[in-house]
Write a structure and sequence with these properties.
Blueprint lengths: L1 E8 H9 L3 E2 L13 H12 L7 E5 L5 E5 L1 H11 L12 E3 L2 E3 L11 H8 L2 E8 L3 H5 L1
Parallel strand pairs: 2-4, 3-7
Antiparallel strand pairs: 1-7, 3-4, 5-6
Length: 140
Amino acid sequence: MEFNRKTQVVKSFVRDMKNEKYNMFHKLQRKEGQWSTYEKSLLIDSMLRNYPVDPIRSEEKEDKIKYVFDGVQRSTSIRDFLADKYKLSSKLKPVEIDGAVYEIAGKKFSQLDPVVQDKITDYEVVHYIFSDCTDEDIRE
């Protein structure tokens, strides 16, 4: 088993998902859509506050597609938010970016101030990409 570590900004990661470089249907991972809107909102809130977000782990196969086996909920929540598929929870508190305070509660991505949008799309996601591994390796 081998793996490498890669960082990627959100806008690039989402583009790669759209271009099918990532597959969200690894047999060892639960399906997308498991999180509530509040849980998805907390992920976006964490990114805006520069909190660390757990890395995405995927298995790269011979077809060069990365099959996500840890992080499907995180990945799809980010992708869907950037596509305006849900509003952030009304329970979220304002965020401060470079000394300015921004309201984010109850807003879709397109409704956020451009400074807030940039903070999200420029957030760096950490990936661990595994190759030459078995299902047992992945479970461990």
